[in-house]
Amino acid sequence: GQQLNQSPQSMFIQEGEDVSMNCTSSSIFNTWLWYKQDPGEGPVLLIALYKAGELTSNGRLTAQFGITRKDSFLNISASIPSDVGIYFCAGPTTSGTYKYIFGTGTRLKVLA
Amino acid sequence: SQTIHQWPATLVQPVGSPLSLECTVEGTSNPNLYWYRQAAGRGLQLLFYSVGIGQISSEVPQNLSASRPQDRQFILSSKKLLLSDSGFYLCAWSGSGYEQYFGPGTRLTVT
Prior knowledge:
Chain A has no helices and 11 strands.
């Protein structure tokens, strides 16, 4: 079945630094979703991507839909302490079952 | 705008007791509804999803069941809880687009 691999699994960065994380799959996705989850809360949708090559921003966050449709990237510029959390990539399966596949998450910790 | 509610927010139940978690969605009609479980520090495990009233698809054989008695209501149940049922339960919905939105979650501790 379809799987999503996220990297890195975790990262510590200094406040003000830029952050990059990615999500890869061995199969094609037609939509990429990026979420952030704070401790004890539900994931919040940050960015949705619908077209290969698409580059979309949401404030300091920028995500890209890979040209091959098998990967996606999320960048956070000038990180701040509230960026701490777990970032998940996800996408609806292409099997027509209405299910979604989620990556294993990237845990981000920002050092002030 | 659409909103999704879950209750209760937290729950502590003894082993062998029944469970009922409720999820409701407002501001949309005929949503696809989902139940996920998340173990501490882990990813999301899809438990059930529903594309319409009375239509439930189960992903993992387990001690839980789901029902959809109304268009925007999704219920997760168990007749007898196990210790392994502890976790963070998330309800989610999707509509005609491909975006999926999550509720605030229910923290279940089985003692």
